[in-house]
Each structure stands twice: as structure tokens, then as C-alpha cells.
Amino acid sequence: MSLPTFDSLVERDATHVCAGIGKDHVCVRVAAAAELPTRYGDFHAVGFWNPVDGKEHAAFVHGHEAIDGEAVPVRIHSECLTGDAIGSLRCDCRDQLEASLRQLAEMPYGILLYLRQEGRGIGLTNKIRAYALQDHGLDTVQANVALGFHDDERDYSIAAHMLASLGVRSVRLMTNNPRKLDGLRGLGIDVVGRIPLVMEPNRYNRAYLETKARKSGHLMNLPGHEQAEDVEETASVH
Fold first, then answer.
1. Of the candidates 180, 206, 196, which has an alpha carbon nearest to the alpha carbon of residue 230?
2. pTM value?
3. How many angstroms separate the most distant Cα atoms in the chain?
């Protein structure tokens, strides 16, 4: 059986309506797809639209075999305007984005999901408010809590729906965050491996990365924190 094409996914979802759609229901559909040559390699950009909240998300697919694939390398990247676009040194988001695209392009196939969940789900303005609190001595977790949020408000049901829409049967997740592994597994995604994505800290984000390891459980090879046993490949970038 031949694999579906990107055009056929768009046609399939043109009239797609999820069952039980409601205020808080996740219903993303493939809305557009096109070839996207990048400085990292060749991808297909696949645009997703959620009619419930009007948000747009994207998948960047390298290699047609990723569609309906098994053990597909997948990076779930949440939007970070300050890091991804502006080059902020307060986080490692842009470094992770570029490193994951570069690695996926070197693999036979893989997918990067780009989710509109700025600031771990608290939004851009609240992220800037959290930065201001960090300027006065709070760490990233304390700042989010002081603003009335959990340390991480992201929801991976959108990512699970996107993977299902692309027919992905199992994934090797490119992450340092065990919550992503647990979150996807809890949503029925078969996670068969983990690919670390550890960035070298700089003087502006070292405390941020240490807080992610110590308080949020990120697997980052910091003193006193050993890598998990499910590590499949080393993807440390210096």
C-alpha cells in the first residue's frame, strides 16, 4: 500500500469535524502543506488549524516515510518568540530548535511539531512578567507560581492529535523533559525511545537550566542528575 501524500492529507481534512467538539475540545486539522527548503535541510511544512480556539500549529516533516511511520524521530517544540526569533540568551529554546532541525534533516526521516504555547503555556506577556520577577531574584518556577500558574502549563493533546493526523504509529521523542514522555504516553502515543537534546549553558541561562533539572526533572547531565535509562542516542550540543 502506498503512503498518503501531503496533498491527500489536506484533502482528507478539508471537511473533517472531530466528534464531540466543544469549548475545550482539541480538534486540529491539516489545512495546508508545501515544500520548505531550509538552511538545515529539506522539509515539508504542514499547517494545522484548531477551529475550537482558532490557533495555528505546524509540523515540519523531513522525509515522506515519516507519514504513517514507526519509531519516527519527533521533536515537540513550543513557541518561544524571545528565543526562537529574537535570540534571547535567557533560555535554550533557539539552540534546541536549530539543533533539532539540523539533526532531523540528517536522519532518513523525522518531524518537528511547532506548537503555539508561548512561555510554557502562559503566553508572551506573562512570560515577560516572569522575566521581571526573575530579575528580582526568583527562579523560573517561583516566578510562574507567583503569577498564579503551574511551573509548566503546556498541553500535549494538540501534539498527539497532530501525530495521529500524520498517521505516526510510534515515536522516538527528542527531549530532555520526562513530562513530555509521560504526557504523550498518557494520550495514547507509543513512545519507543528518547533522544536527548542537551545544550551547553551560557552565563545568562545557566541558572534557568539548573532550575529545569532540579525542580522540573529535566534530564540534563547536571551534577547530581543522571541520564534516564531510556536514552537512545546522544544529542549533546556544545
1. 196
2. 0.85
3. 60
